[in-house]
Amino acid sequence: MECYWSDPSKHPQCPHGPTLLFGSYETGKLQKFYVCAACRERKMCKFYLKEDEQLTKRQATKWDQEKKRYVSHYEMTHPTEILKPLENSRQEAQYFFTKKATEDIVNILVKLGAKQVLCIGTPKIHEHILEKHEDNISSLLLDFDGRFHNFFGPLNYCWYNLLNNHFFNESAMYVFKDFVMQNKGKDIYLVCDPPFGSRVEPISWTIKKISDLHRKWNNIEDESDCLKVIFIFPYFMESIMKQKSNPPDVEGGLRDLRMTDYKVSYDNHPLFITDSKPTKLPSPIRMFTNVPLNLVQLPKSDGYWYCKKCKKWVSEENKHCKKCQDCTSKNGLTYKHCDICKRCVKPYWKHCKTCTRCVVTKHLCGNKPNVIGKCFKCNEPGHTEKECDIDEETHINAAKTKKIRKRKASDEKETVNNIKKRKVRASGEPDEETGKISVVKNTKKSLRKLEKKGEKQKITPELKVKKPRMLKKPEALKIQKKAKLRNQSNGIVNIKKKMKKQPA
């Protein structure tokens, strides 16, 4: 058996790549043939072709099908092409961006001047950056799907849970910190595609936490150098993000994000697809960001245009309303203005005099939805913000009164705690701090409040004024001795008096 020195790239290929040229003597004649370069036994790879022969069409089709059974380099660097998306909607349902959406989002990042991109739940963005922009942009993928360990190295992927900001591997936290501190934290963008069924509160907390760490680790004071966020979410969750993602007095997180008109499409979801059919609504998924909207340039090829009045890029169907002074469309259709409601509404809505608002044409009048949550305006249950009768002034006053009540409650707690800690003197003796005589009535009131709360307080005997003060043993002995001396002296005086009164 002989192996010939030759260029394998000119040889026919089996599923394991180009074959090698071998030769053996059979019946005194040299017979050359191509066989697999990886497998030493024909049982492992059955490819065999004589040097002077060509593959038939049937044989070529067969070996092409065999090649498809093996993972290619492209598939190894693009695991989303071969991994089956997880379908458990209660835990980790996966929906991958279309190729067009992936390219558009990455192009937006390139135009914004991104140097580092933190991909949270966006493996498609991560793959595309590594393939097309690896020289200019560094990328780190944080994802809940542990299968990506088989395709990306520890410096490119961290197994991560967005909802509690948890790294499953302790060393991954150091990888994350080093990535965030690259280039002193400048030109870094966070792109997040969360599960849409999750609560916005923990997501907002995590994004705020990452932003705060980015600011702290890089000693950032200029707002222009803060972490830039691109967040993928449905347009109809905009009000929830603004009202419920953060507590009222906490800024940052999802509350600071503004919605763009860009429609995000997915490969494996029937409703999240932007189709050219006029009868079908486009994808309801939008891109939210804290980047100024005039800088987020959307693709002109898809009909997006720049509105000079609003100073932002909007979709083709989104027309500027002179009365609202804004481009108001959100669901992919051109909205119309209602003069009675004084706002723009969906085109298939109509103003109902009975309901006194714009609703769907076919509806039951007076049929109000059952509101379970609280109003975003007054924080009271049973109605929505639009139905709230409280104006802004009363809302502000109500907030102030709540603050005053909280202050009063805290003051009362402080006074009760002070009564507990203070050593109360006898009612007749002045207090060292105030110089005033303690009043029994105040102590009685404080005792009643404590009894109502059901707290069992240990009260010193001095606080109970009616009962005699208990004395210590040495003090009691001194008093007894003094009393005996008084009695003795009193007895002597009485005897003298009696003697004086008796007749001589």
UniProtKB/TrEMBL annotation:
Domain of life where this protein originates: Eukaryota
InterPro entries: DNA_methylase_N6_adenine_CS, Mlase_EEF1AKMT1/ZCCHC4, ZCCHC4, Znf_CCHC, Znf_CTCHY
GO MF annotation: an example: rRNA (adenine-N6-)-methyltransferase activity
Residue stretches making up the CCHC-type domain: 374-388
Cell compartment(s), UniProt: Cytoplasm
Domain CTCHY-type residues, every copy: 302-379
GO cellular component assignments: cytoplasm; nucleolus
Signal is among the record's keywords: no
Keywords: Cytoplasm, Metal-binding, Methyltransferase, Nucleus, Transferase, Zinc, Zinc-finger
Protein name according to UniProt: Zinc finger CCHC domain-containing protein 4
Provenance organism: Habropoda laboriosa
